[in-house]
Design a protein that fits this description.
Elements: H1 14-25, H2 29-55, H3 61-83
Keywords: Membrane, Transmembrane, Transmembrane helix
Transmembrane segments: 34-56, 63-83
Pfam families: DUF3493
Length: 91
């Protein structure tokens, strides 16, 4: 068994060490951001389609509710992206 005093010195650069520490603080952040962006894009496309349908004259209450749902999806994904922003200064 290796004791802490017997471990070799770290062969990681300072930048690599910072990346690993950032990953430990928030695991899977890039994957989550990918899904946030994908869902926001999907909501944006849906909102565009429902807005065009409403402007074309289909003024049923379902269309308006669906448009509001899509806008809410885009706003919530943007909020999650903002909430996960990196507060550490770069450099």
């Amino acid at each position: 068994m290796i004791k802490p005093s017997q471990t070799p010195k770290s062969r990681l650069s300072a930048e690599q060490l910072q990346r690993l520490q950032a990953e430990l603080r928030s695991p899977y952040k890039p994957i989550r951001r990918f899904f946030y962006a994908g869902f926001a894009l999907s909501g944006g496309v849906g909102a565009y389609i429902f807005a065009v349908k409403i402007l074309a004259g289909d003024s049923s209450s379902k269309m308006l509710l669906n448009l509001l749902l899509q806008i809410g999806l885009v706003l919530s994904m943007g909020g999650l992206w903002w909430w996960e922003r990196d507060d550490t200064p770069s450099g």
